[in-house]
């Protein structure tokens, strides 16, 4: 029997798929299109073409699997997917690892799994699904911080915004840039998903945070230095960021968040080893020539 994976053609999901296969797991990937089916099959998975918000398809696929890892999380999908999976695995020795997000905790300088939810409109929908998963046995939730690495993730947006605009381009910050983002390398968050799946005693939420929590200004300054952006960084008002990025997304990026991911380290032996986000930027892996045309999932 195989693991049922959603999001296997996406930014984080494709990396989780690679790690699961390398660990010797068989994977069935639920995808929406023949194009994504070709991607996951080329990686070594068995494709199931169908919608993650089709309860009948989800119940059948989850019922035929030894466990489920869900990365294609969204309000419409989770409302159907989570109850369908829980029904399909009830009474069976099957695991379910669900995706949460750091934004649901709001601002805080030491966010842990015990921190109260302070959801914004962009993240509040996660609460119901997480409550259902938490109440069920043999389940765990991985809540990634701001994921970076492989030239993609939210950091990509800061870089793209400062590329070649005018005579003296700048790196526009989100707000004044004083807020911290709690970050995690792509390789490290994929390792945490697999640990949460393989460790059968794992239960509840695990925040995937490296403990490196730079300010947005520090990120912008690293970008400006890496590509000699002559205008440096350009702070703006919160309202200007809301107009530029959309209110819901900007308000999430304006959160001031710091976390260490201590629970995952202590209970699961998670040991983040990826380069810090500032080192990753300085290394050139986010060079403008690597910009992709498709948006990357952030899972926050």
Automatic annotation (TrEMBL):
Family matches, as SUPFAM superfamilies: NAD(P)-binding Rossmann-fold domains
InterPro entries to which the protein is assigned, alphabetical: Epimerase_deHydtase, NAD(P)-bd_dom_sf, NAD(P)-dependent_oxidoreduct
Sequence ranges assigned to domain NAD-dependent epimerase/dehydratase in this UniProt record: 3-201
Gene3D superfamilies the UniProt entry points to: NAD(P)-binding Rossmann-like Domain
Pfam families linked: Epimerase (PF01370)
Protein name, entry field: NAD-dependent epimerase/dehydratase family protein
Organism field: Leifsonia stereocauli
Lineage: Bacteria, Bacillati, Actinomycetota, Actinomycetes, Micrococcales
């Amino acid at each position: 029997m195989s693991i049922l994976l959603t999001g296997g053609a996406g930014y984080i999901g494709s990396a989780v798929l690679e790690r699961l296969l390398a660990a010797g797991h068989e994977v069935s990937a639920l995808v929406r299109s023949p194009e994504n089916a070709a991607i996951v099959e080329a990686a070594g998975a068995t494709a199931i073409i169908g919608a993650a918000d089709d309860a009948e398809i989800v119940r059948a696929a989850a019922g035929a699997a030894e466990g489920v890892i869900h990365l294609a999380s969204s309000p419409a999908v989770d409302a159907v997917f989570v109850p369908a999976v829980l029904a399909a695995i009830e009474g069976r020795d099957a695991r379910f690892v669900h995706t949460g997000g750091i934004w649901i905790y709001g601002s805080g300088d030491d966010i842990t799994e015990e921190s109260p939810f302070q959801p914004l409109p962009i993240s509040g929908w996660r609460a119901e699904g997480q409550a259902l998963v938490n109440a069920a046995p043999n389940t765990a939730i991985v809540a990634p911080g701001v994921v970076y690495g492989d030239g993609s993730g939210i950091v990509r947006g800061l870089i793209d915004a400062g590329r070649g605009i005018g005579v003296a381009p700048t790196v526009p910050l989100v707000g004044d840039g004083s807020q911290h983002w709690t970050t995690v390398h792509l390789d490290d968050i994929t390792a945490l998903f697999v640990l949460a799946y393989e460790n059968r005693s794992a239960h509840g939420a695990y925040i995937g945070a490296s403990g490196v929590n730079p300010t947005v200004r520090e990120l912008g300054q690293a970008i400006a230095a890496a590509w000699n952006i002559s205008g440096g960084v350009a702070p703006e008002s919160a309202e200007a960021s809301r107009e530029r990025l959309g209110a819901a997304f900007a308000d999430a990026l304006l959160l001031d968040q710091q976390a260490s991911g201590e629970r995952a380290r202590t209970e699961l032996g998670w040991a983040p080893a990826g380069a810090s986000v500032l080192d990753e930027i300085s290394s050139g892996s986010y060079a403008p020539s690597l910009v992709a045309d498709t948006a990357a999932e952030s899972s926050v």
